[in-house]
Amino acid sequence: MTLRPCLLLPRRVSHTLPPPDAIIPYLAEAGFGDTVPLRDFTFDNSLISTLVERWRPETHTFYLPWGEVIITLQDVAYHLGLRDGNPVGGCLCDFGRWYHTETWALVEQLLGARLPAAAQQAVQRMESFTLKLVWLRDRVRQMSQTNDPETLRQYPKCYIMLLIGGYLMTDKSNNLVHLHWLPLLRDFAECRAFSWGSAVLTWTYQSLSLAAQQGIMDIAGCTPLLMSWIYHRFFQWCPPDRGVYQYPLAAR
Fold first, then answer.
1. Contacts for 191 with CB less than 8 Å, ≥ 6 apart
2. Contact at 8 Å (CB) between 205 and 213?
3. Which of 43, 60, 178, 201 is most deeply buried (CB count within 10 A of its CB)?
4. What's 212's DSSP letter?
5. pLDDT tens for each residue of 85-128
6. Structural contact between residues 178 and 19, judged by C-beta atoms closer than 8 angstroms
7. Which distant-in-sequence residues (6+ apart) come within 8 Å of 104 by Cβ?
8. pTM
């Protein structure tokens, strides 16, 4: 087994903003009503680094002295408040071809605002269509006072994109979320039917497999899921002063 020379550094969880009361019913409609970021989350570098050393990408299991242990979809649903459903596919880059609208026009249509022109040009130069988490967070914080349902639906979409990029499926940028998730939020009924738990599980597997490679110094993915899962599956490693988290989906 290759020994890791130093501890892994986690990608900071960028999203701890609680949802405004006005959008909570819409989050529930979209299937994200029980998905709340852990605000007092603490990453145990030593514990995660030790487990990553024992991660086997070929079987998606932790190879421990007493046997193999796997993170399952049920574990993901339990810890994150997500549900199983249809496969999630968010890999489209040519928005104009598939949605018959210009990329940033689609952003404005679904999120109620368009990025400044300079920001759009910078993103297009990088050939990566992304949104800044700070921009999404500001959109939610500055939510207009309105009773119009169509306008209100724009803000939970901003919040879900913030959840995806800043909590559920963080990447090495640590401050961006790709636009390929946005079309999946157009219709909340369809959004609710997707298996977001499977998507987070796949993202977690990929992050663990990348972190297990020699020379990798950090780990992305849903690190709160890893820590919470470890503490529930291996209670002997759980700090005695750790708070007890509640998971509404599992409780139901």
1. 30, 31, 160, 184, 185
2. no
3. 201
4. T
5. 665 654 455 555 656 667 778 888 899 887 765 455 555 554 45
6. no
7. 114, 115, 120
8. 0.81
